[in-house]
Write a structure and sequence with these properties.
CATH architecture of chain B: Up-down Bundle
Number of domains of chain A: 1
Radius of gyration of chain B: 18 Å
Structural class of chain B: mainly alpha
Largest sheet of chain B: none
Structural class of chain A: mainly alpha
Strand content of chain B: under 5%
Oligomer: heterodimer
Number of helices of chain A: 4
Shape of chain A: flat
CATH superfamily of chain A: Fumarate reductase/succinate dehydrogenase, transmembrane subunit
Helix content of chain B: over 70%
Number of helices of chain B: 4
Order of helices and strands of chain A: HHHH
CATH topology of chain A: 3 helical TM bundles of succinate and fumarate reductases
Number of strands of chain A: 0
Helix content of chain A: over 70%
CATH class of chain B: Mainly Alpha
Number of domains of chain B: 1
């Protein structure tokens, strides 16, 4: 149930960002100055916190999604759903925490 | 907490449209696992958001026809996957006419995003 709730919430969040992202990339051609202004927001400290949350939503959705695909396309592997669920979270933190550090690091450099 | 198998979308019976959508969601998921995570890594870990100005995208990233093609195909795959997902969400919470209206609006929004995204991928001049 928790896996399902997280999957749905992260999915809706990434969907919402995809809409914003197609529009902002459209501006690269349509209005480059407006795009560059928006980029300043993405690169700002609050923007970086949002991107870290976006990355977390994307990464969880991707990992848990693969768990679902494995069990849906090879139903026999459903027996291992607990192990798969553990792999999802180990991978999420093992790769996600260094990733978050890279995205957030410029905030401390700005503060110096 | 790992009672997830209960909450998954069961494989639709028969060979109709629902099964096609169900499979399409899973195949596009596998493609996006590679494409979207590579894309996020490229835009956040290899490069920094602060560097990727409109000029940088024009001169560096989209100076490559191959990367444009990759990004263009990612646009279609991500829209198929995310809008099929949102269709499932809407089917879970809305019934009857409201469901029909909102799903129609979702398809219109997806089509508009195909037009916007394709427009910039295809018409931004190669430098």
């Amino acid at each position: 149930m928790l896996a399902w709730a997280f999957h749905r919430i992260s999915g809706i969040a990434v969907w919402a960002f995809v809409i914003l992202h197609v529009i902002d990339i459209y501006l690269v051609g349509g209005n480059p100055d407006a795009y560059n202004e928006l980029l300043q927001i993405y690169a700002s400290p609050p923007g970086r916190v949002m991107e870290t949350l976006l990355g977390a939503a994307l990464f969880y959705h991707a990992l848990n999604g693969m768990r679902i695909v494995v069990m849906d396309l090879w139903p026999a592997l459903t027996a291992y759903h607990r192990q798969l669920w553990r792999i999802v979270w180990i991978t999420f933190f093992a790769l996600g925490l260094p990733g978050a550090y890279i995205i957030l690091k410029p905030i401390w450099e700005l503060a110096k | 907490m790992s009672s997830a198998p209960r909450a998954r979308q069961p494989r639709p019976a028969g060979r109709g449209r629902e099964l096609t959508f169900w499979l399409l969601t899973r195949y596009s998921a596998v493609a996006l696992f590679v494409l979207a995570l590579a894309h996020f890594s490229m835009t956040h870990f290899i490069y920094d958001p602060a560097d990727q100005t409109a000029e940088w995208i024009t001169q560096m990233r989209w100076n490559s026809l191959a990367l444009r093609l990759l990004d263009w195909s990612m646009l279609f795959i991500v829209l198929i996957h995310s809008f099929l997902g949102m269709r499932t969400v809407v089917q879970d919470y809305l019934k009857g006419t409201a469901q029909h209206v909102v799903i129609t609006l979702l398809w219109i929004l997806a089509a508009a995003l195909v037009v916007l995204g394709s427009n910039v991928v295809l018409t931004l001049p190669l430098k």
